[in-house]
Amino acid sequence: MSTRILAGAFLASLIGSGWARAQEPADIEKITARIEALQRELDELRSQVQQIQRGAAPVAGAPGAPPAAGPAPAPTAVSPAIVQYETLSGDPYAAARIDNAPIDPELKGFFAIPFTETRLRIGGYAKLDAIHDFKPIGDHDFFTTSTIPVEPGIWGDNTNIQARQTRLNIEMRRPTPAGMLRFYYENDFTGSYGPRVYNLRHAYGQLHNFLAGFTFSSMVDIDSTPDTLDFEGPGSTIFVFQPQVRYTHPITKHHSIALSVEKGTSDIVTETDVNQTITPTSPWPDGVFRWRYETDAGHLQVGVVLRSVGGYMGNIAEEHVFARGLSFSGNWLVVGSDNVQFQLNAGDGFGRYFSDISGLAADVGLDSDGKMVPLPAYGFFGGYQHYWRPAFRSTVTYGYLNVDSVDKTLTTDFHASHYAAANLIWHPKGSAFNMGIEGLYGKQTLKTGESGDATRLQFAFQYDFVK
Predict the structure, then answer these.
(1) What is the pTM of this model?
(2) In the prediction, which pLDDT does 46 show?
(3) Number of Cβ atoms within 10 Å of the Cβ of 13
């Protein structure tokens, strides 16, 4: 409906009202009142046309709009401490939230799909890393401490330039009678088979508080991960993507719980020294329970995972052991915008949940009696983010990870690692550009007692598609 059509209808109404027949003052008063009423209707229709052009839902009471259902409930909001927490990765944006509450209430970058109630956003970023290693490390793109060589006498510089962290994401939102429906997709190019290999990060839908798809495990607290230029971050971080079904229940304004059923995978050795093949199996999926507390000053989270891990080898009967893990994490404002991040993680047989050792057979091993046992593992990290000025921030981080693989066979050789990082990031206010420099130090110790360390200097240049 255009403004011309509305104006035409307005004039026709005037004629039909008896304008030409107006002779007496009483008739003029009636016509004046009619003109004022029509002007109000015209203003209302014009407002509705503008809302439709912006892609908004029909106004209650308007032609074709559903009847008003009473006052709308107050929208769920994400903690201000989470909203203002800056990270180069942007991972907090991808995480599922209670009632699909957006981190950006203004929904910047969204546009309406014509003739639907669906709104679409295309985002991501382009990121270039320039990396110089002062000593060899097994992973030239990411600072993975479990790949640091332990052979004595190794020395040699290496410079690398890569853009594998570049990401593309697509988000769709639409209202439904059951609540807001959100679909989120994201990929980068950090696949494990070489440089610039497509890698799926997220593909999930959430209706109200029911989630199904592929995304961060419910054990992951992405809001507590430190702001590093390095993609890997502390090896002691709980960081894993899994197919899952999850339900999150808000108990009060600040408290919520979540239950999820996630893909179970046994991270064990698949081939022995005598060329025997071990087939990992999981008789039931991983079960995760999570409690979370959010306030304006920050958040705290506790996650528990229960698992069954094991497998079979040749003619040896299938065997499994019970495994479990506990994670306590958070992020809290301390002075101004400065904040601290931390995680404390411990358990038996959940090594694959740690960022640094996932895929290294860190779940189970055989003890001296040849009995399968879950491997005890624990790790922690702490980070502090400081703002020198609104456009300049720094984060210092230290993490430690330990797996009790000593005196165990058919398991990882990894035993412990240290990770330290410090950076300076420049992000001009109101811009989509980021630039930073970071120094990193790491050390790995094997169960044999051998150890090695590495140092790195990394520069990063990043441009966000939507900011």
Answers:
(1) 0.82
(2) 67
(3) 16
